[in-house]
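Handout, section B. The chain below has 414 residues.
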Amino acid sequence: MYPTKIINDPIYGFIKINNPLILELIDHPYFQRLKRIKQLGLAEFVYPGAHHTRFHHALGAMHLMDQVLDNLKAKGYSISTQEREAAEIAILLHDIGHGPFSHVLEYTLLNEVKHEDVSTLLMAKLNQHFSDKLSLAIEIFENKYPRKFFHQLVSSQLDVDRLDYLSRDSFYTGVREGFIGSERLLSMMDLNNEQLVIEEKGIYSTENFLMARRLMYWQVYLHKTAIAAETMLIQILRRAKFLISEGQKLPCSSPLKTFLKSTYTWEEFSTKDSLLIAFTELDDHDVWAAIKEWKNASDKILKHLCTHFLARKLFTCKLGSQPLPKAKRVEIEENIKREYGITDDELSYFVVEGSTSNAAYVQGDNTIKMVDKQGQVVELLEASDLPTIQALSKIVKKYYFCCPKSVYLQGELS
C-alpha cells in the first residue's frame, strides 16, 4: 500500500501524488533510470546549472496535467477518474524511451530509432507487468483515444510537456527569457468538439509562450558550444564503435558494449528482449565512465577526443546562415592532417559539419486554436495581431562547422 507522497519541486512547490498505480510506476526501474539522464544533454558545458533530469521533467509535466484537468472539470467538462489516471500516466511516461544524453545520441547508439517509439515499447512492457492497467494511457499516448484533447495535452504545439520543459530549463540554465506563466495558460485552456483550444483572452500568453520557445532554442538547445560538445561526443562513440568492430577491446559497461558492438534495426530492437533490457540499463553514467577509461586508450584519435572532452577543450563551432566556404574547409582539413598525422578516412572525427533548424510555430494540422466569446474557433495566426507570430512559423535553418579550435585559428591568422 502506497501512502500519499509529497515532492518539493523548485518550479511548482509541493506536488502531491496519491494514486497507488502512479506511485508504483515512479518506483519502477524503467522510470527511476530517468534520474540518470540529464534533461538538456550537454548544455551544462554552457550553463553549469543545467543538471536537472528527465525524471524531474516527467514529474513536473504530470503535475501540470493534473492542474489542467482540474481546470477543465471546473469549467463543466466530464473527465472520469480512469481518464485522469490514464492522462497522467501518459505524460509521466512520455520520455521513458530516452537514451543517454537525451536527443544527442538518439541516432548514434540506435539506428534511426526514435525515443517516442522506444517509449511506446516500454509502456507496452509495463502494461503487461501491471495487468493491462496502462491500456487507456497507451491509447492516449498513441492518439487512438476518441477524446483527442487528452493526446493534445500530451503532445501538440501547446502541451504540458513544452510548458514544463520551458519553465524548468529556463530555471536551471538561468535564461530568464524562456520563463513562461504556465498557470495562466493552463487556466485559459478550453475544449471545442473535444479538441483543445485557448480562450481569446489567453492570446498574449500564447504569444509569449512561442517567443520564449524560440529564444530557448537558439540560446540553449541549439547553442553553438552545446553543438560543439555534442559533435565531439558523437565522434567519440563513432570511433569506439569502429575500434570494437576492428576487434579491439575497450573497457565499458555491458549495456553500452551491447550497442557499440553492433547497430540494430528497429525490427531487431523491438523483438529481442535482451536488447530492450540492455537499453533500460543504459544511462549517462555509462558513457561518462567509458570516456574516463578511454582517455588512456592506445588509439590516438579516441585518446585525444576523450582527453579534450573531459577537459572541456571542445571543438570550435561556427554557426551561420551559409555553409563554410569550400576553400576554407579544404585549408582546415590539410592543417588537421598535418597537425594530427591522420589520413583522409580519419578526418571525419575532427571535421563535422551539418545544419540545424527550428520553427517556434508550425502551420498545419496541429495548429493552436483560439476560441472567442461567441464560440468561434480560429487558428492562432488569424487571431493574433502580432506580425511576429507569422515570422515564428518560418523555419530558420543554420549551418554549423566544428573542428579543433587551434586548427581553425591557424586558418584565421594565415
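Note. DSSP finds 20 helices and nine strands in the chain. Compare this with the example in section A.
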